[in-house]
Structure formats: structure tokens, C-alpha cells
Recover the amino acids of this structure.
């Protein structure tokens, strides 16, 4: 079957760094992306990795290792507004598969 | 403003009454897709479309239909809704491939 695994919950304090891991098992793979969703809102795009390595976008970075079927999202200098759910997603030739999401709670 | 627009945002209906959720994007995107979101399950893809007149099944297509007659529109049709289709639905689009998705605001559907 096809599956994506990510932790269900993560808690961290303001100013800290948090890493959200994602492991996947899919029949095909064209890239791994990350989305943020605040309660009551729509998912918004954060980052995409098509090749192995690190992609950096401001306070957010994403990493991919295709040989390990693994990626992570790194959030630095956490702010209260980062409290949200984060989803990893695999692009399997445009057939998208999402993880169940990681709920990040940032505490003061 | 570049956006994906879904309507209706909220709908309560009864079993068996056909309904259509519209989706329109103004970014000239080729790729469009529909998802349903249920607690604990994340987003599950229902159908996607790479371009006009090209549609493909996603992970959970049963009970749904779509059409792509124009580039900007990708309606989701529930011919005979059932209570297990009660969910939050999102439409999304991307320029060419599904690498960077822009989502609509969501449509919360309740089937009684």
C-alpha cells in the first residue's frame, strides 16, 4: 500500500527549533512538499523538494533523502503564529498523497 | 488577486439529492484537483486534472464525478450524496504539475 507517516503532535516553545519528520512508502515519487494549515483555514504551500538535499525558505527549511524515503520540515525561531497543522505530501505523478498531519503547538 | 474560489462554502443536504461544488481559478493553471479532509486522515485526493478534458481518479473517487470543460473551472459533482460524504472539501490548482498547490477556502458539506 501507499502511506506517509508523520508524528501526530509536536510541542515546542517560542524561539526554539522544531523538526517534523515524514517517511513515505508510495508506488512512485516525483517530489515531497509541505503545507501549513491553521485551524479553520486552507492548506498553504510551504516548501517542495524534488531532489535530495535541503531547501531553505526564510525560517523554514525542508530536506529530502529519496534513498531513505524520508524528509523533514525544520522550523526555526518559532513564533506563536506557527501553531498549526503541517502536512507532508508526495507527488506520485500528480496523484497526490498526504500524511495525516502534525499538529504543532508553540508555547510562550 | 490570484485565487481559487469554491462555492458553496457551507452546504447541508439530504441523501440522494444531487449537488455540485464549483471551483474556479484565475491563475491560468493547468493542474486542478479535489480533496476531502476528515479528522485524523489528512487530505485525500478525489480526482485531478492535468488539462482541459483530461481527468484522473485519485485515492477516493467513488461517489464523485468531475469535469474539465474549461481551463479555469473544475466542478465536483455528487450524483447521489450519502452521509459518508460528509466532509470538508478543498479544490486546489497548480501551474503545471502538482508541486505547488494553491488551495481554495474549502467547502463544508453535511449530508443528512
Amino acid at each position: 500500500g501507499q502511506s506517509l507517516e508523520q508524528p501526530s503532535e509536536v510541542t515546542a516553545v517560542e524561539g526554539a527549533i522544531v523538526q517534523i519528520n515524514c517517511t513515505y512508502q508510495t508506488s512512485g515519487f516525483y517530489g515531497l512538499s509541505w503545507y501549513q494549515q491553521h485551524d479553520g483555514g486552507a492548506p498553504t504551500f510551504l516548501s517542495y523538494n524534488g531532489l535530495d538535499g535541503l531547501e531553505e525558505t526564510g525560517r523554514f527549511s525542508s530536506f529530502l533523502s529519496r534513498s531513505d524515503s524520508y524528509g523533514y520540515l525544520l522550523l526555526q525561531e518559532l513564533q506563536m503564529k506557527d501553531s498549526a497543522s503541517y502536512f507532508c505530501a508526495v507527488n506520485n505523478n500528480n496523484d497526490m498523497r498526504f500524511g495525516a498531519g502534525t499538529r504543532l503547538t508553540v508555547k510562550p | 488577486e490570484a485565487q481559487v474560489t469554491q462555492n458553496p462554502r457551507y452546504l447541508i443536504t439530504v441523501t440522494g439529492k444531487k449537488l455540485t461544488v464549483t471551483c474556479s481559478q484565475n491563475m491560468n493553471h493547468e493542474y486542478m484537483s479535489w480533496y476531502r479532509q476528515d479528522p485524523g486522515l489528512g487530505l485525500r485526493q478525489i480526482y485531478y486534472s492535468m488539462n482541459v478534458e483530461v481527468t484522473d481518479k485519485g485515492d477516493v473517487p467513488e461517489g464523485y464525478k468531475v469535469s474539465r470543460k474549461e481551463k479555469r473551472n473544475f466542478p465536483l459533482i455528487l450524483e447521489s450524496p450519502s452521509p459518508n460524504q460528509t466532509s470538508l472539501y478543498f479544490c486546489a490548482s497548480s501551474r503545471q504539475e502538482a508541486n505547488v498547490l494553491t488551495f481554495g477556502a474549502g467547502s463544508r458539506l453535511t449530508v443528512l
Q: What stands out?
A: The CA atoms of residues 20 and 34 of chain A lie 10 Å apart. DSSP finds no helices and eleven strands in chain A.
